[in-house]
Amino acid sequence: MLVTTPSYADGGTSDGLAAIPPARSAGPAPGGRLGAAARDRADSLGIADVPWTSAAEDGELVYRFGAALRRRRETSVGYPVNLDLDYREFGGLLDVLWNTVGDPGPGDPSRPDRQPFERHVVRFLCRLAGGDPARTYGYVTSGGTEGNLFGAHVGRQRLPQAPLYHSAAAHHTVARAAALLRMEAVAVPTRRDGSMDVRALRDACARRAGRGAVVVATIGTTMLGAIDDLPAVRAATAPAGECHLHVDGALGALVAAFAPNPPAWGFDAGADTLTISGHKLIGVPMPCGVVLARDHLVPSPGTAGEYLGASDATLACSRNALAAVFLWYALRRLGRDGLAARVARCLSVAAYAERRIAALGRRSLRNPASLTVVFDRPAPHVCRRWHLAVEGHLAHLVAMPHVTHETVDRLLDDLA
Length: 416
Prior knowledge:
The chain is α/β, with parallel strands linked by helices. About 35% of the residues lie in helices and about 15% in strands.
């Protein structure tokens, strides 16, 4: 099958990899597999039976890919990732294994994988979410999907007969989490602004009365940036009985925390578990996140084995310790005030984009506590150039930290 890469307005390709000079012939492949070896060599990224390029050539391919990603900073406005990054000073740490195992508790102080960085990240975000660090369990995850799966898992263990209720606009992996946990998934219709329809939720719970309810509420839906009303959601589950409320706050939680009129989103608003992404507003250069839970709700990890030297209620057991270090570093450099200033700057850009798009005569929509600006879907070449997220007749931009007023102006020049 021929695989092609789409071209972009900067003249590059989606992967930024041009053909490298032909490598020295490796001769016939062992066992007469010349055809497969030739195909591998024809693909600049093919992996053959034996090395057929030099380390320098392969390193150049990787750097070209990185350079292509770097160039996208100026025209990537459609997805909720922070491209305002620079962690190059940590390049000298890539000759050690960054692995952490089990819960981020004190553990054995002689063990290098019992890192203190992760514990401080969890404490900081717990306090931001209105929780008590002494009564909250948490750890650094691979991202929001693992955080949502963990939250649903805690709810499943707590309420074994309960369905999993989620907004029809929730992230698609929420339904996948329900399937993995063998839970009945109930998609609740949304209101016009994209938030969960609490009347529809109450009706769905009434049809399944007495079974309990595991609910995933979203603070910033994928397409519209809508925010579910946590107190109203919890109240609507009354016909079901006991409720476990998980909050998917991947991007929106930290924005909500510092918005001028902050919506309810954390433990003080009724959340039992919640997840926050690290590669979005915080700006870690790898997918990661933090999941938090009221500690009395977390299932007992049981015996983890003497070789582990720690308890383990995580889903992953071995985890990326470098992500925890980068999260600590980013939050340490920002602090609470720095995060607040970042959110204020991003909200300013989002409001500017909303006004400018409306001035062009296009429909625009934005929740005041969201960085997502929704507007009429533009021409395909504009969507490609600016990496816009699209769905049906709509597109959106997300005013992440690398998106400036000037970036919006250049986008709107194309829209006009």
